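Hi R.,

Here's the chain you asked about this morning:
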Amino acid sequence: MITSNFINRDFLDLREIEKIISNPEVKIVSFDVFDTLVYRPAIFPTDVFYIVDQELSREGICDFISYRATAEQKLNRPNASFDDIYKFIGDEYHISGKTIERMKNKELEVEFRLIKPRQIIKKIYDFALAQGKKIIVISDMYLSKNTIKEILDKNGYSAVDSVFVSCEYEKRKDTGELYDEVIDYFKVKPSEIVHIGDSHYSDIEVPAKKGIVALYTPSFMNLMIKYNEFGKIFTAPNFSDDPYARLLIGFVLGDYFSNYEWEIKGKLFDSFDDLALLGLVPVLFLTVMHILNNKDIQSDYKQIYFASRDGFQVNKVYSRLSSVLGKTKSKYLYAGRKAYEILDSRFQTFNDYYRFISEKNKKLKLKDFVRNFICDSKISAEVCSQISDDDNLELSEQKKCLIILNKFRKLLDAYFEKAKNNARRYYEKELGKTASGDGNRVVIFDCGYSGSVSYYISKALNIYVDKIYMWSAPENSDRDRELQTKTYTVIPSGVPFHSGLHVIFEELFSPLQGTTLGFDDKLSPVLEKCEFSDEMIRIFNRVDKIIESQTDKLLDTFGSYLSDLQIRDYDKFTAILDYAISSSRFGERKLLKSVSFPDLNFCSSANFNLMNKIDKAFDDSSKEVLRYTGFNDFSFNYLPASSPDGLLSRKIGVHVHCFNQHLLQEIVYLLKDFPFPFDLYVTTPSKVSVGAIKVQCGIIDTLNKLVVTVVPNRGRDIAPWLVSTASVQKNYDYFCHIHTKESKHLSFGENWRKYLYANLIERNAVIDIIHFFESNPKIGCVYPFKYYELAQCEINNLVKPMGMFGEQDEIDNLLEKFGIDQRISNSELNYSAGSMYWYRPAAFRQLFEYGFKFEDFPAEPIGVGGTIAHVIERLPTFLSTYNNYTNQQYSRYRIYNFEDVVFGRRNESSAQYNTFEQFMKIEGHRIKGMVKKYYFYKIMNTLFFGTVPKFRKNYEELHRQLYSKA
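And the predicted structure, written out as tokens:
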């Protein structure tokens, strides 16, 4: 089974919305305002109050948050205006009119600064404008229509004709009264209005009942959490208790999900651009905010140094923001470990230095040591030329290596003395003149974490070198105590060695150049020579552009408010990248494969890329070697559905009973890609909805004929189906019946509906089903397997297939009326729960020949059982069998992620295999077969309530075997 696009995404895309808008019947296009046309760069709308609070506190106005956050709730007036809210605050807390006015103005000032347009909705707005449609907005909001108009004008929506806002009309969207006002004001039919918004209730369900064409467009938060993998990382409302973290994360995610098309992705990062935008940028901005807004850092140092290489991007962003905000200046400092380690007073000769390096890099070859640790290329080349292949030993063989190096002792000692002197002169020149404050201090940013940059330079120059680290290791704390230096840590938690996250930032915050090996006589840095692949060059150029662009956007959005972002919750910023490389079943870490800096801490080979380094970090700390590979997404794919060629002559009909008008969009989303020409019969109890139904269905290209019929609200979907389509059934080879099923009484009602739709009217499902019919003339009915949560609910509540409200007797009575002298038992009744089917009309002929009338069905509401509608729901499959047809259960698509039954837990037993590839080669086919059988028996037990011993035994045994491997 595989995941249908529809299951992941149930709303129309840009082109389909434009197609509806272009319908000549549409005169007005209406938009919701907040989270539709515009958005705040925040997780919650009230997050902006914290910036207002900070700004006002600088003016001596305190406690704004305590007044404003609860004012609307305490006022308890749904249609209260902005002035009403502030009048209440003034009266309640005895605040002067002058102060109230200042608070109001500051809130509006902050709102105007932060609010941004959603570019994807802006495209719809521009299209509607080009089509000559009248543009209006409708909002349940406390801001006045003039204020809303100003906000829209500022964000590029200057052609809005009218603003309907609840606080001025004393009518609301969520009651429907504001829509009535719009319809009456413009004197139009409801179906001549298309309304677009992000609230399923007030923007879709309510206007749909009025007959307005209501189209759902998710807010950036919904798009992120409900429709993408981010829902596994972030949960609202428990996103974070730090409003400033919510603002900065809201900026990053809001920009991404508001300015790109409505992407529904099975993974966090489809490309390296995604990784940069959503993985690097949040942490980069967090780091810069920490430096900008740390009072001690800003007051205690004349200049902030950013160490090469991993300080490169942080310096660029900090320099840009600090110049605007008037913060302490910065400078890029060449400070590679090889450049400053030689300052250690323990190293009197080159051989001393060699011994130190050899203890840390025992596997390193002698030639590689010479090339990588001697920055004078002439001397390096001369020494290497005299080292034969036989002499190219590993450094661990110290005695043999020293014998060879001693041949060049004078040359190397002279070089070493000069290299130490050049390094000392460089750091004295750069750091000595800015050392200041209490105790002659400077501060250097570095990703971290052991304190080596401070340790070596502090001792050599006799100054205190403090550090700004992303992470700090215990070793660094020891060095701080020894040297009396300080460390400002951006992320207080320990270094994430277990995931390798620290390595990602060290490399991707770097420029495209090698590390600093030392300094020449002019004190210019000597850089490691590196050759980078074309793909790595492309990636780093893109990362540069993305960081520059996002920094410009950050400044444009927050400006001076950046000084207010005193962030406390750091985990949310690393969570996205951490999840992608350590927990995602799609293996996004493969994106890091093209990044390859030489790094002797890992391997002397340039082929040891960033992905390899992350793998090594995991291998060293975890046995979960398969979870993050991307190979453990065990979904069993059908072969691609066959081409519809040769089937186009079949007569196909579809009936949709549209009681819940707001759900029609889901059906249209699927029918727009229907693979065959077909006729569509829509029944609705709402006369006012007829026009809107026709407008929405107008985007279905393969639609031959559309018939919309208004019917009494009787018999749920069953009566409209049987009564309204009985006379046309004989005209069709195959017919489908579905309806706008909501099932609000069930927690899984939405997923159940989507499961049924996906397996009945999704394009490939339709092709499969028609092929079922074509390949076997005896198939009378095709319907999905029972939805798994429904089956479990029925088991838990002892629900009988024949029903719990006397349906069995009524079934017997109805069969007698059909002239059928048979009875049905619980053990043989398997029907489509939800009453949605594909069928040959002849297979259900008694239902259409009986002559049902609407009066045969009681008026709504009729509950969940006990009526003739519930009786008939159970009959189609029985009738199909009685009429000498067979029934085919079919589910191409699933609604949930299968359990990771094989690789979802710690896998100790797989240690016998050297690699995952070896494991899959030996075990993969067998395990996949076991998993297929596992789900077969799981479904069988669900369908038969676990009463068949064979099914139950096989399921339990397979469950035991699979989980023993997990």
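The first strand starts at residue 2 and ends at 3.

Let me know if you need anything else.
M.
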